[in-house]
Amino acid sequence: MRFQKNALLSLLVIAIASTGPVSAAETLRRAEVHEGVNQRRPAQDQTVTGRRYVWNYRGRDYTVLLEVRTARYNRYDNKQRIDIPAMVIEGQESLAGLIAELGRLIERRRLRGAAKIDFVLSMVQSLPYTSDSVTTGYNEFRRFAVETLVEGGGDCEDTTILAAAILRGLGEDVALVMTPGHIAIGVAGPFRGTSIEREGKKYFYCETTGGGWTVGRLPPEVRGPFRLEVMGPGRPVVTPPRGPEPPETSDPETEPRQDKTVGHVVVVVFVLALSGAIVAFLLNRLLLPRELSDDEDEDYEEEDEDDEDEGASLLSH
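Given the sequence above, the corresponding structure tokens read:
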């Protein structure tokens, strides 16, 4: 009887735990980032909401295919939207798959420093600017990062939360930059342009709306005073190993030096092998006549001995 009670109690605990809140990391079902314009459409049914985004960075097109679990996405309706730093941290967790895909692409394209920041900004800036009063009926309605992607746009608060979540997920030191009527992000690093300093560290301004704004460039309509809220570097999203990537065409901006080094080594080995063959041929040509002359002298000596033997035999007769 006691065993049955314990079993029923265990089942009740499991049932209650299974109906609890789902972690943010389970919101995203699948995320894929492709170079070029990918025409494949993500899944779209009652259980999965799919989205497709295409943007351009430095003359090259990129595509993001996003699949979000519809039931878990709908639970965002009951979430608090007051604390922006908390929303950034939540976005870093819910978009872990997308951040990992972007990290793999950044490594494959060898984007470093400002190019890495600008690549993420170009993706976020490609989303259209939408006013809260038009899309939601409220003057101020902050969206979580995954909501901004699924709904296909947002205002400066929404894109700032999205960009900060992605960059923190990539290990960048991020701060929120507040100005009268506007918000953006700052990223610490060896960059150039407009920056806001806090305790000896410079955070370079990054605009998340519009298009073509790179790290350190301040739009002329944005004016101070600036208020900085430092979030610090995020823990990088662990990028799971993947199979071999398809061969890519060389990019003059990111052409690896290893290919040039291998080519130089091949040329040097070929020249050395050719030189060795030429030296061996010349030595063979120089030494062969001397050997032949020595053999001919031995033949002549043998013939002279034979002649002397024949003459001696004739005299004896």
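The CA atoms of residues 70 and 312 lie 121 Å apart. Try to locate this feature in the token string yourself.
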